Amino acid sequence: MNILIIGSGGREHTIAWKISQSAQLDALFIVPGNAGTEEFGENVDLKTTDFEGIANLVLENNITMVIVGPEDPLVAGISDYFSSNKLLQHVALIGPSKTAAQLEGSKDFSKAFMGRHNIPTAAYKSFTKNELPQSFEFLQTLKAPYVIKASGLAAGKGVIIENEIDKAKSAIEEMFSGKFGNAGETVVIEEFLDGIECSVFALCDGKNFLLLPEAKDYKRIGENDSGLNTGGMGAVSPVPFFDDLLKQKVIDRIVTPTLSGLNQEGIPYVGFLFIGLMIVNQEPYVIEYNCRLGDPETEVVLPRIKNDLIELFKHVASGTLESQQIEIDHQTALTVMCVSGGYPEHFEKNKKIEGLELLKNELVFHAGTKTTNDSVLTCGGRVLAFTSLGDSIEACRTNSYKSISKICYDGIYFRKDIGQDLLSFEIKN
Question: Quick count: other Cβ atoms within 10 Å of Cβ 178?
């Protein structure tokens, strides 16, 4: 098969690495890709939302499967573009429709959806710019900390948590004033849920789903979960506190009602569904939906899946996923993200990465990288994800940080505490 992956991050490099292991792959194209994806296929310099350019690439290269990595093209309607074009209807596109992608594209939409289908989530209200006084009034009814979210897409950075009400009000004003662009035209204010986060992932064919390995990611830039939100600084899978009882609660109360609710509303869901959870006293609540795999969670989830990923995708496309079972490696996987200095705010690009040739058997997934004159340079906030597999979180931590010590670039930064908070849970188990 000739396959196209859309995206340029660590998630897409990991998908490319995984499907390259399949005997069913003939040729791989990545739009636009990065320095890491070059190892497995041909990078094509197109924007992820250039649907016409992508369509021409698909037709010219006899591509029969398209895997959409990031949220932007999904929310913009790439699935609908393919399904409505007679020349492209034979192509299996792995990703939800524009309407279904609103689960991520609009937090206002997703919260209202959860309310309609009795899916557990934090109490909330949504406000637009001309409702600023009402938003302040609602804020007064809540207890600190205050959770303020831009409703639209903000690259994982549109969630602000403040302990002081005046700062919470300022955060609302900044969102309405364009801090996150159009994403902040509607603001969602939620009650704070005091628990521990966990992410689950389902691969869906419109009727059926397979639950993939769960993961815990680390969103804050600073150690001990301090500082600004990022796209993700690291992840661990499996999660020691995610036992069989909790897993069943998630399936019964969240995954199944979500997919059946979408079908009831005439929105069959095809592709990856990411559900961000807050576990409060062993009870799961939905923080957010994403319409694709998470990043950096992909870098720990896919290495634990033994299945041929192309085979699973073929069953997604044909609506026959019920015939498949996920085979999971029981080892622990842990990834640490190295980022550019200054991220998630202003950061410099085009810094040469030294030492990559010293990495032989290590799993290193490129995120914000590019190749220029035979050198690999940084070109994003998140640069490289270092993944290790092992018998324990501690063993994985040791190996990932050992791998990081082999490379360097100007301004390199990474958290040194990824997985550390889970060590006590692991010992109990």
Answer: 12
313 in Cβ contact with 67 (< 8 Å):
yes
- For residue 219, what is the DSSP state? -
Co-location of 412 and 355 in the same domain: yes
Nearest residue to 233 (alpha-carbon basis) of 69, 417, 403, 15: 417
Q: How many domains does the chain have?
A: 4
Last residue of a domain, one of 139, 166, 190: 190
Other residues' Cβ atoms within 10 Å of the Cβ of residue 371 = 16
Strand partners, 352: 377
Q: Is 419 left (phi over 0), alpha (psi -120 to 50) or beta?
A: left
DSSP 49-91: T-HHHHHHHHHHTT--EEEE-SHHHHHHTHHHHHHT-TTTTTS
Burial label, 197 (beta-carbon count in 10 A; 0-12, 13-18, 19+): middle
Q: Which of 141, 165, 190 is the last residue of a domain?
A: 190
353 contacts 369 by C-beta, under 8 angstroms: yes
**For the purposes of burial, counting CB atoms within 10 Å of the CB of 227, is it exposed (0-12), middle (13-18) or buried (19 or more)?**
middle
Band (pLDDT 50/70/90 cuts) for residue 426 is low
Domain match, 155 and 249 both: no
The one-character DSSP state at 181 is G
Mean pLDDT computed over 253-265: 97
Across the strands, what pairs with 305? 328
338 and 386 assigned to the same domain: yes
CA-based nearest residue to 225, from 188, 196, 187, 201? 196
Name beta bridge partners: 272: 203
Which residue range is the domain that position 169 belongs to?
124-190
Q: Which residues, 6 or more positions from 9, have their beta carbon under 8 angstroms from its beta carbon? A: 34, 69, 70, 295, 367, 368, 380, 382
* pTM of the shown model: 0.93
> Do 246 and 341 belong to one domain?
no
> Can you give the CATH number for the domain in which 205 is found?
3.30.470.20
- Mean predicted confidence (pLDDT) in 82-107: 96
Q: Quick one: 211 and 286 in the same domain?
A: yes
